[in-house]
């Protein structure tokens, strides 16, 4: 590991308990910063309501740390929107945001559009499929942004059990993302969960970053933030254990391909590879190929969008 990364681990890695809520509230009142929490959601009726309810109770009603909770529905066919609204979130459908640019499927697309419907100086992203959710996922990663003016982006780190096996989750992280980062961006080798969906950042940083529309958004954002702001502007906070729904092997393959493509674009812009992945499923006549396109589209930095610029002026 690079000496720079060893130093970073000792100065930019914390635990959620390092910053009690009363300290965070004092820092928020002193600096006047506002906090938005965004949950991108697609068919998450089983979990989204509990997450919203916990954040609302712990961080809005008990302690006024969070200013708004916004669930951006990515086209759910279940009761995700209704459950989220009943729990106290403001729900916005992806297609209602910036309608002049047709939306495409993908998590990154939703995160990018969320900047237009939130107002916080700090934006905190939380996946909507978490189980046994703790509000420390929010307060932990928002904390350094309230107390450390030089920090611009904070990732959550945690244990990820796979069934009953501790620490065996995060298979795409271990097989794809971590090798890519260690080999090509060794300054980022200290991140425990580089692909984790729980992270917070200053709006002033997020609005300058391009957003890969699909699964590559977390890796792309981390690499681009490193180049734009430097390693010392990045941090991570231990929030304990993350329990969620795990994807099957083929879905993980598609995720890995998108992440590799995101990395490849950043390594050699203009060097095109075939943006497709063929997988196999056993059918009545043997193994049948299924070919999927790999996410290659990216949304530009939000500051380049006229509607966002006009909203800022207003």
Structure description:
The protein is α/β, with parallel strands linked by helices and 314 residues long. The strands form four sheets. An eight-stranded mixed β-sheet has the order 1-10-7-8-5-2-3-4, with helices on both faces. Strands 6-11 form a two-stranded antiparallel sheet. The chain has a two-stranded antiparallel sheet with strand order 9-14. β12 and β13 form a beta hairpin. α2 packs across α6 and α7 runs parallel beside α10. The mean pLDDT is 90.
The sequence of SSEs as H and E is HEHEHEHEHEEHEHEHEHEEHEEEH
Give the radius of gyration: 19 Å
Give the overall shape. Answer: globular
Q: Largest beta sheet, briefly?
A: 8 strands, mixed
**What is the count of DSSP helices, taking H or I runs of 4+ residues?**
11
Tell me the structural class. alpha/beta
Q: How helix-rich are the residues, as a percent range?
A: 25-40%
What order do the strands of the largest sheet run in, or round the barrel if closed? 1-10-7-8-5-2-3-4
* Uncertain ranges: none
